[in-house]
Amino acid sequence: MTPPLSIWVVSDGRAGIENQALGLAEAVQRLTPADITVKRIRWRKAFDKLPSALKAGWMLDPSSDPVEPGPGETWPDLWIATGRATLPLSIRVKERSDGRTFVVQTQDPRWRNDAYDLVVAPAHDQLTGPNVLSITGSPHRVTPARLAESAPAFADRLEKLPEPRVAVLIGGRSRAYDLPEAYAAILVERIRDAIDGHCGSLMMTFSRRTPEAAKATMIARLSDLPGWIWDGTGPNPYFAFLHYADHVLVTIDSANMAAEAASTGKPVHILPMTPRRKADKFDRLHADLEARGVSRPFDRWLDEDWTYEPLDETGRAARVVLERMGRA
């Protein structure tokens, strides 16, 4: 009998970063027996800003998980890593494992892109190469089954909310977009109009990047609506929000949240934000989602429902990983 595939998921531990690698690992696990080990690393402060080429393993912070096998252990069959912090480790795995380990990097590494067995990159980054797989959005952990599994823990609070139940996923300041308080006040009135106009309910959550002033304004102006504005305390209802939602509103700044919403098969409305710079790659992403029938720009109303085949780009990437490994 073939033993389960061993998979190491490596990141700096930030949820939005880790979930890309973990989501891909879980998609592989759905296709073949596999054991997943999560590894979280960070570099000592003195070395964190060094170029990847100058970093060595001894520079890792002592709080990091071990990224090499201990005595009597072996390298994993599959290494899946995400984020800049992992690059100096990923490029050395093939050599140190004597070719045993298949190395996957998600996102565009922007450094030694040919050093990995496979790069799973967002199509909107327009990365090309024989070892590149382009997908719409980013790998993630959202599947209909996972959403359904998460729902019962929050059913008492969400199941009886007035329909349509509207999940609102708010991002925040990035290189391309911002959410200043004044604009948040305008946006929140449009959201209120949409929910009030249909006697619906609100399920809202924020990103770590959401500016505090914008967050406070949105909470203050929406807290009287039926529903739940999650304040970050207690168990995270994010998956349950997506499960119970009839419509999903997502700010334009987050490829991750847009891809997750696109996996539900439910109408996805893209909320505008204040641009800080030209955002061609986000324009490409949202054009792709619109062309697939997933999303439309938010127009203050929820009059029309639409359906589409839920996107499973993470599953597609998992199948390619196994094919490249000769395990399909």
Describe this entry's structure for a reader:
- The protein is of the alpha/beta class.
- 32% of the residues lie in helices and 20% in strands.
- It is built from 10 helices and 14 strands.
- It has helices spanning 15-31, 87-96, 144-150, 155-158, 181-197, 212-222, 238-244, 255-262, 280-291, 313-325; strands at 5-11, 34-40, 78-82, 102-106, 118-122, 132-135, 165-170, 177-178, 201-206, 227-229, 247-251, 268-271, 274-275, 295-297.
- The strands form 3 sheets. It has a 6-stranded parallel β-sheet with strand order 2-1-3-4-5-6, with helices on both faces. It has a 6-stranded parallel β-sheet with strand order 10-9-7-11-12-14, with helices on both faces.
- Helix 6 (212-222) links the parallel strand 9 and strand 10.
- Helix 3 (144-150) crosses helix 7.
- The longest helix is centred in the N-terminal third of the chain and has 17 residues, at 15-31.
- The two termini are 16 Å apart.
- The model has no long low-confidence stretch (mean pLDDT 95).
